[in-house]
Amino acid sequence: MSAAAEAHEHHGPPPIHYSSRINPAVLGIFLFIGSEIMLFGSFFTAYFFDRIVANPAQWPPLNEAGVPFERPWFLALINTLILVTSSFTIHWATVSCKKGNRAGLQAGMVLTFLLGLTFLLTQVIEYHRIGFNTNDTAFAATFFGLTGLHGCHVFIGLLILLVITIRAFRGHFSPSAHHGLEVGGIYWHFVDVMWIVVYVTVYVL
Amino acid sequence: MTSVTHDHHHAPASPSGLRKLTAPGWYRVLWTTPLVGFIGLGIVGLIRWAADWDPIWKSGPLATVGTVSFPMGLLIGLGGFDFWTYYASGKRTRPDSHDGHGATSWRDYFRINTDHKVIGIQYTVTTMLFFVISGFMALLFRAELAQSGDQYFNPQTFNVLVTEHAILMILLVIIPAFAGLGNIVIPLMIGAADMAFPKLNALSYWLLPIAGVTFIAGMFAPGGGPSAGWTCYAPLCAHQPMGNIFFNMAVQWGGASSIMTALNFLVTIITMRAPGMTFWRMPLLVWANFSTSLLVVLATPFIAGSQFFVLFDRVMHTNFFEAAGGGYVLGYQHIFWFYSHPAVYIMLLPGFGIISEVIAVMSRKPIFGYRLMALSLLAILVLGFSVWAHHMYVAGMAGWLRVPMMASTLLIAVPTGIKIFSWIATMWNGKINFNTPMLWATGFIATFVIGGLSGVWLGAVSIDIPVSSTYFIVAHIHYVLFGGSVFTIFTGIYYWYPKVTGRMYNEKLGKLHFWMTFIGFNATFFPMHYLGTQGMPRRVADYAPRFQELNAFASIASYLLGASTALFLFNMIWSWTKGEVVGSNPWRAMTLEWQVSSPPPTFNFDEVPQIVGGPYEFGVPGARHAILGSAQAEPVATGGH
Amino acid sequence: MTRGSIFKLFAYAVVAGAITTAVAVFIPWLPTAATRQADRMWFSIWFAEIIAIVVFAVVAAALIYCVVEFRVKPGDTSDGPPTHGHTMLEIIWTAIPTVIVIAITIVAAIVIHDNGKAGTNPLVIKVVTQQFTYQFEYPNGKTFNILRLPKDRNVKLDLSSKDVIHSFWVPAFGQKTDAVPGITTSIVITPTRTGYYPIICTQLCGLGHALMRSEAIVLESTEYDSWYASAGEAPAAAAGGTDGKSVYTAAGCGACHVFTAGGSAGTIGSSLDNLSVDAAKAGEELNDFIRSSITDPDTFLAPGYAKGVMPSTYKSSISGAQLDSLVQYLAENTK
Ligand code: HEA
Ligand code: HEA
Ligand code: CUA
Ligand SMILES: [Cu+2]
């Protein structure tokens, strides 16, 4: 071992030098979301091929009874509104936190969490009553594929929200230190925006 | 392994008694793995029972969930999530804690370790292990191919061997080997103490052995191993034996690992460069990993998607790619290649970076056309996304797609050519030291140009059609992947070996390794071009007798490759303890990693270094790349003084 | 660079080029073209080959020159000249490859365009693939296992698949395309030489992939016409025929099974010569056993064989009457 390493006495690394103004965690979550968008992209690609290329004439295709598959677009619309609302509530929580308003932060987080949970439960019930199953043609595959993938993201998002809520109640966020909240919030917004795209493609178009 | 000795810094004291079972580590793994694993399986049973599905215990869903839950148990046991569970439950955490950083004994390589240098070694050693395993599989099926007719393996076993050989080489050797070398040197090169997210870094490493073990477990799955080729085309893949489920899931583990590492590289390179380290002063290896990581982050989700779809088609009976249910079969190939073409550049760009480092240093000259070298990486990245369908010229896809795909495919020859020519121009008039790393780098240029030119042939539709899916492709694959990627990995391993171990490898053995590989490689794979044009399809255990002689020749030559690999392993292991001790900078290089001790201190630098110039200013009077704190390293004779 | 070094470099390039050219010319890389399409393809290959030789010779010469001339002398620790680049050179080696690849693109595009033209009155043959056989359906509705083609006439092959992706390739014809379930793909060929040619499946399609072969016979057009006129007498096959033996051949059982009466010697599946033994093991009557072995191959596994090997698609691809006669035929000819 060289003399240099022995001369190396003090503990811990040298102070970190940041070469960019963006916070690493925030940059990280944006890149991660980029990756997530591509994952959704692959599902949309499958949808594109199954619908536009393979079944251009009739979508949704006809089921065994000879009528097109029914998509519960109205229920999903209400669900969409619920999810969009939750984007606002988490924004409110973040703003409250930055202003030092702890009650607002806590209320905002609890509301967001509950709205997200409502969305997910509604989705599960919808699956249960929808009247077709995964093996019913490529339409069902893309339907369950896209909504299911999104559902998984909501589930992960809910876990993150839960963590943030717990930490909010424990007082870990302050007007000056709230990266955890911010990063989780960015992810939740992504989940919401993605839903709008999924909703429009799967239920409306 | 006395390599990374950090006298002052201690890994967490090893617990005793019952605490052993609860503290992160292999004792805890012993019970968390079965616990979490079987809970996963139990949930499957529960859901199927509740939904009244028959049978309750069905192999497909069980395999799918089991390949997630057992590894999860392992990770939990190892402590991969400890920090986050602490964080999540609202406990106080110290994000800057350095527990689990560094290594003082070999045991520290077998736990969650947050030191980028340790992780780099973990990666590199793991990939070499898998290189031997998957290479050995190749030697096995080459034995079958030495004669026409059926000898040792039935078609099922043969296909399993080919499939595993290829996927392990790609997902468990080449891609992570670059991640490993990058891990060791990137933070050093940019003057950072570690990666941006050390805990994530540790976790991404541990996903890798999980992926590898899952792939290999698949070979022994009841019913048979994955046997649809590494491309796992639908619909065949969805109707293969159960091993294919393991294959699909292992790809997810490997993919997740590479996405997480890439994300870490990107954030590290963007936010943690030392003062003065502008993008135009970064070593080309950092540039290369930067572009590669962008590719990984954006492309890898597509292979994840493709494997999910075939998995769903099989386990949940969906019809994504089942023609009978209205699915579109070729959709799979589009999605798969949208990842897997960029993947071939993921498997080469970091290698380009390594070659640039070595050629500049060993020729004692600045890189020729530095900026164009960096920009050509970005050009390859962008073009790489627009060529996927060149793997589908004969697949029956829309005819109009072929010409634009051909144009963009062939255009990639231009930035790649820029790199080749600039390397040669860097060597031109240099004072070249043909030591082992430089030999490999030179050999790389020669073989890769052959592979690249056969790639250009394949890119031209009218040439691809007759040779697609034949041994011509097999030849191309190995010229670019072995003669390209593997050669660059060897270059990198030899080049940084003294940095990582503090000792020099054996030069004579290194050169012998090169010549044996170079000759064995060309002898094995060059004849395959001929086999292909003459009519031998790929992925067959049996072939027409007229191809007998050449195949026997290739098989024998492949054993030379096996022998040379054994030589390499011996050199690496032997030199680690017996090699000559060398100083911090045996190559007289300018980049930062060579300015600290070998092996580098735990936190790389005492003070943040100050970057004042380009990384390859050899021969420029008085030029410096960086100014380090006073007591950092022994004096270094940089060129020109 | 001095005169001498330019000369040396040039000499290296000539030697490297000569060796590569020798390899290209003296090794018979390509099978003799047997269709007009292959002629065009071979032309584009030669075009690219010349380019590849030049590019390789240039790179090899420069590399060898570096290796020979720029070796450092032992003990010399000085650096090379600090050249950082040369704009003109960089422009040149960007521009020339660009021009070259555009040229290749144009040539290849013209070739595939010409090769895609089927003319006004092509002979259209349907190629139906399934694990591990080809069936060729002629315009008159007759189906064969062997492809017979007239010389000098445009033939359009329309490929489809009943199970997984297969492929159609005749090396000497140049053309190749996959047969994909759910869609129809096609290629055009215009045979120019009579003779026998192997048809090869190049897409991994299961365990019998290596054995999925057939034959293409190119006939003089007069011979072809007389064959076509009398083709009704040729053995009827799966599509219409229900003769047990032809079903056996048409469905490709022989690719995997030894069956003496059927003249097949495949080694992937079990021998079909002693079925009564296994029938007894399964506790079933012979005919029922054979029937269920074909429709549901996984219910009873021959000892030593794995599940999922024998295709489970015969249920749907063999019609009821055909299945009856196939079972009949097997039961009669086995022990
Ligand atoms: C490291 C991996 C790697 C790399 C770098 C490449 C590089 C290239 N590949 Fe390759 N390829 C694979 C790995 C790779 N490939 C694999 C694994 C497969 C098979 C997959 C499977 O089916 O299993 C495959 C298959 C494959 C196909 C599909 C064949 C088929 O299945 O029918 C095609 C077709 O276009 C192709 C083209 C190219 C091209 C044009 C390049 C170019 O990037 C090459 C560029 C380089 C050069 C051209 C040389 C240097 C340049 C000069 C010296 C300049 C002057 C040159 C000219 C003017 C021409 N490749
Ligand atoms: C990085 C990628 C990589 C590498 C390095 C290799 C290395 C080798 N490959 Fe591989 N290969 C692929 C990637 C790679 N391959 C891919 C992607 C395919 C396509 C698969 C598909 O069609 O799906 C393929 C397919 C493929 C085929 C075609 C199979 C077919 O289509 O039927 C063949 C045939 O010869 C082959 C041979 C070899 C050989 C002989 C080596 C040799 O270089 C191996 C050298 C040997 C070793 C490295 C082992 C060393 C062993 C020892 C030292 C023994 C020690 C023993 C103990 C300790 C017990 N490969
Ligand atoms: Cu059919 Cu291979
Ligand atoms: Cu490609």
Automatic annotation (TrEMBL), chain A:
<dbReference type="Pfam" id="PF00510">
    <property type="entry name" value="COX3"/>
</dbReference>
<keyword id="KW-1133">Transmembrane helix</keyword>
<feature type="domain" description="Heme-copper oxidase subunit III family profile">
    <location>
        <begin position="1"/>
        <end position="205"/>
    </location>
</feature>
<feature type="transmembrane region" description="Helical">
    <location>
        <begin position="105"/>
        <end position="125"/>
    </location>
</feature>
<feature type="transmembrane region" description="Helical">
    <location>
        <begin position="73"/>
        <end position="93"/>
    </location>
</feature>
<dbReference type="InterPro" id="IPR033945">
    <property type="entry name" value="Cyt_c_oxase_su3_dom"/>
</dbReference>
<keyword id="KW-0472">Membrane</keyword>
<keyword id="KW-0812">Transmembrane</keyword>
<dbReference type="GO" id="GO:0019646">
    <property type="term" value="P:aerobic electron transport chain"/>
</dbReference>
<keyword id="KW-1003">Cell membrane</keyword>
<dbReference type="InterPro" id="IPR035973">
    <property type="entry name" value="Cyt_c_oxidase_su3-like_sf"/>
</dbReference>
<dbReference type="GO" id="GO:0005886">
    <property type="term" value="C:plasma membrane"/>
</dbReference>
<dbReference type="InterPro" id="IPR024791">
    <property type="entry name" value="Cyt_c/ubiquinol_Oxase_su3"/>
</dbReference>
<dbReference type="GO" id="GO:0004129">
    <property type="term" value="F:cytochrome-c oxidase activity"/>
</dbReference>
<dbReference type="InterPro" id="IPR000298">
    <property type="entry name" value="Cyt_c_oxidase-like_su3"/>
</dbReference>
TrEMBL record, chain B:
<feature type="domain" description="Cytochrome oxidase subunit I profile">
    <location>
        <begin position="106"/>
        <end position="612"/>
    </location>
</feature>
<keyword id="KW-0812">Transmembrane</keyword>
<dbReference type="GO" id="GO:0015990">
    <property type="term" value="P:electron transport coupled proton transport"/>
</dbReference>
<feature type="transmembrane region" description="Helical">
    <location>
        <begin position="550"/>
        <end position="570"/>
    </location>
</feature>
<feature type="transmembrane region" description="Helical">
    <location>
        <begin position="509"/>
        <end position="530"/>
    </location>
</feature>
<feature type="transmembrane region" description="Helical">
    <location>
        <begin position="471"/>
        <end position="497"/>
    </location>
</feature>
<dbReference type="InterPro" id="IPR036927">
    <property type="entry name" value="Cyt_c_oxase-like_su1_sf"/>
</dbReference>
<dbReference type="GO" id="GO:0020037">
    <property type="term" value="F:heme binding"/>
</dbReference>
<protein>
    <submittedName>
        <fullName>Unannotated protein</fullName>
    </submittedName>
</protein>
<dbReference type="GO" id="GO:0016020">
    <property type="term" value="C:membrane"/>
</dbReference>
<feature type="transmembrane region" description="Helical">
    <location>
        <begin position="405"/>
        <end position="426"/>
    </location>
</feature>
<dbReference type="GO" id="GO:0022904">
    <property type="term" value="P:respiratory electron transport chain"/>
</dbReference>
<feature type="transmembrane region" description="Helical">
    <location>
        <begin position="438"/>
        <end position="459"/>
    </location>
</feature>
<feature type="transmembrane region" description="Helical">
    <location>
        <begin position="250"/>
        <end position="272"/>
    </location>
</feature>
<dbReference type="Pfam" id="PF00115">
    <property type="entry name" value="COX1"/>
</dbReference>
From TrEMBL, chain C:
<keyword id="KW-0408">Iron</keyword>
<dbReference type="GO" id="GO:0020037">
    <property type="term" value="F:heme binding"/>
</dbReference>
<feature type="domain" description="Cytochrome c">
    <location>
        <begin position="239"/>
        <end position="334"/>
    </location>
</feature>
<dbReference type="GO" id="GO:0005507">
    <property type="term" value="F:copper ion binding"/>
</dbReference>
<feature type="transmembrane region" description="Helical">
    <location>
        <begin position="9"/>
        <end position="30"/>
    </location>
</feature>
<comment type="similarity">
    <text>Belongs to the cytochrome c oxidase subunit 2 family.</text>
</comment>
<keyword id="KW-0679">Respiratory chain</keyword>
<feature type="domain" description="Cytochrome oxidase subunit II transmembrane region profile">
    <location>
        <begin position="21"/>
        <end position="119"/>
    </location>
</feature>
<dbReference type="Pfam" id="PF02790">
    <property type="entry name" value="COX2_TM"/>
</dbReference>
<dbReference type="InterPro" id="IPR036257">
    <property type="entry name" value="Cyt_c_oxidase_su2_TM_sf"/>
</dbReference>
<keyword id="KW-0186">Copper</keyword>
<dbReference type="GO" id="GO:0016020">
    <property type="term" value="C:membrane"/>
</dbReference>
<dbReference type="GO" id="GO:0042773">
    <property type="term" value="P:ATP synthesis coupled electron transport"/>
</dbReference>
<dbReference type="GO" id="GO:0016491">
    <property type="term" value="F:oxidoreductase activity"/>
</dbReference>
<keyword id="KW-0812">Transmembrane</keyword>
